[in-house]
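Continuing the series of single-chain predictions for the mutant panel. This is the parent chain; the variants come on the following pages.
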Amino acid sequence: MEDDNLDTTDTPDAADIADAPQLRPQSLVLAFFGNHVLDEGDLCVYSGSIIDVLGRVGTGEQAVRSTLTRMVNRGLLRRQREGRKMFFGLTPQAARILEDGGQRIWRDGAVNENWDGTWTLLGFSLPESWQRQRHDLRSRLTWSGFGALYSGLWIAPGRADVRGVVSELGLDAHVKVFHAQADEATDIGEMIRESWDLESLAARYVAFDKRWSAGPDAGSRDPVATRLRLVGEWLRIIRTDPRLPVQHLPAEWPARQAQETFRRIAEETAASANGMARELLETAPLRSA
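Parent structure:
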């Protein structure tokens, strides 16, 4: 169909895409909306524009279309027809997810230097047959910074508010939450090493910094694609970073250097990416549901 023609001008080289980590299409769609839609008010974007932008980072048309459909079914996106074209906009749930991600990226940061010694403990007991609920709870706890102290007891630094997560999953009757401080006999450093995979997390920060420290995508002429990969890769890392107290982490924790690199590239590409997006994207006002 004519409406689905793609503009491949200035797409990144295949070698650039091959060197970058593979990002899930849903993560890229969310990063796309977070970069170019969330702060613009109630807008929806033509599917062909979304296909164009994700194609610039190596995601095929069919994968994008399937992902958009799944996200509608999951309540993350809304469809809106304008003539012969289909547009997609954010639901309130997706907007909250993106706002939470923005808080993690731009305000909280990846280095926790202001820990007050408080821990949040969450205990849960679910029926053995509730495998999906258990998976969903563990996934959301990981995103919220928790690590598994024991099978049904999870822990996070600071006073983590997970009431919304628990209620959204319908698990209030199965979860208990406490705020506490560790006894002097507890080796906090050892507890952290046992509850979180620090080696893998550090390796991801090191790899990110090595990949991006030379500059925006090693000279890519496509700032929209560059920023989409940058934010998508960074979100993938911090999704599993609990922001543990830096005084209990190994010396020279690599998150600090990686964060400096991320913010530098983000600042360097912001104006050009936004300008290019205004030219590329076909949008429409999002009508009331």
